[in-house]
Design goal:
The complex is a heterodimer of chains A (119) and B (245). Chain A is an alpha+beta fold. In chain A, 50% of the residues lie in helices and 15% in strands. The relative contact order of chain A is 0.15. The chains are: A alpha+beta (119), B mainly alpha (245).
């Protein structure tokens, strides 16, 4: 199976935004979160699934997530939930994201393209 | 289980990157759970469940270890700002530690009469009238001021470098700075038989001239470095043990 390139450079900060948004809806453990991202983005955005854990641990260390070991589906798992600080960060990130989408959209809608120069 | 190969490769990478044991254990536990979920969901058979399949789903061990290090460092101030923490902070931290140490020592000396009685009052007395225990305490304070604050600061920076997920070289740089500062501390204890003339002076001056530094200065310089080297060797041994287990 060929390796997919799953985390392009322009996705910087996007995993964090998705994690906070999805956890703000309900607490989940890592695997559920990966599934939720895949479903919510119709598999358009996929990062190496393992990368979700370092992001979760960082957000937890920064006080944006809380975690608790809970029994879920017959196994002990670390379930993450968003804290108040995380919700504030989420609001900021969403506002930034909308600004960027509008700005980039403006450029892309810009105008007619010139004919390419002859090489 | 063949996914164990992927997990082992990842563990080796995480150890190589110098992440703390507790963090590695937690990450490995969650990833092991994740691989079980993956196998259950996809009904991976033993043929498919190999390292390549794991890499495809979870990422290459080396890339994941790099992501883990980047996120671990980004979570803490000391990880994000190693220059500030290990090359700038040692100077103010050392100075503040000395000031704190002197204030605590002076405060204790002033508080002794009210705690242990007037026999411990040194105000307006000749040193010959001081209690032997008191003289011993003042001398002990003089020696500890030369060595203990710098040793304590070195231990703190070695601890911080382990917590930050950064190379131990940062701690060695910080400890080198602390050693130089420590060598510059000079104290003078004068126990005079003239009442009220006993004095304790603390000064700072780096031995930059051509004159040979005193044995005390050399020891003041060597102790922080020796502690840093011992902790550094322990750190290396600990990582080797981690690789073996």
């Amino acid at each position: 199976m060929p390796n997919k390139r799953t985390n392009p450079d322009y996705l910087n900060g996007v995993p964090e935004l998705l994690v906070l948004e999805l956890l703000s809806r309900r607490p989940r453990y890592g695997y559920q979160l990966v599934q939720a991202i895949r479903e919510a983005t119709a598999a358009e955005i996929e990062f190496g699934q393992g990368c979700i854990y370092p992001i979760l641990h960082r957000l937890e260390a920064q006080g944006m997530l809380g975690s608790r070991r809970e029994n879920a589906l017959g196994r002990d798992r670390v379930v993450y939930r968003v804290t108040k600080k995380g919700l504030r960060r989420l609001d900021e990130s969403v506002a930034n994201w909308h600004r960027i989408v509008v700005a980039v959209g403006g450029v892309l809608k810009g105008g007619p393209r010139e004919k390419p120069a002859l090489a | 289980m063949k996914n164990q190969r992927w997990l082992d490769a990842l563990r080796a990478e995480l150890i190589k990157q110098g992440l703390p044991k507790r963090y590695i254990r937690r990450l490995m536990k969650e990833l092991a759970d994740h691989t079980l979920d993956l196998m259950e969901e996809q009904e991976m058979d033993d043929r498919k469940n190999d390292c390549a399949a794991m890499e495809n789903h979870l990422g290459k061990p080396q890339e994941l270890a790099e992501a883990a290090v980047a996120n671990y460092r980004a979570a803490k101030f000391v990880g994000r700002h190693p220059w500030l923490t290990f090359l700038v902070a040692p100077v103010p931290v050392m100075v503040l530690t000395w000031i704190g140490f002197v204030l605590i020592g002076g405060g204790l000396l002033n508080a002794l009469p009210s705690i242990l009685g007037d026999a411990y009052d040194v105000e307006g007395k000749a040193a010959s009238e001081w209690l032997p225990l008191l003289i011993w305490m003042v001398r002990a304070f003089d020696y500890t001021l030369r060595f203990v604050p710098s040793a304590a600061v070195v231990v703190v920076f070695c601890y911080l470098v382990r917590r930050s997920g950064r190379s131990f070289r940062w701690a060695l740089a910080a400890c080198g700075l602390v050693a130089v500062l420590s060598a510059g501390v000079q104290t003078q204890l004068t126990l005079s038989d003239v009442p009220g003339e006993s004095a304790y002076r603390v000064a700072f001056g780096l031995p930059l001239g051509l004159s040979i530094p005193s044995m005390t200065t050399i020891v003041q310089f060597a102790i922080p470095l020796a502690i840093a080297l011992i902790l550094g060797l322990r750190h290396v041994r600990y990582r080797r043990q981690l690789e073996l287990t």
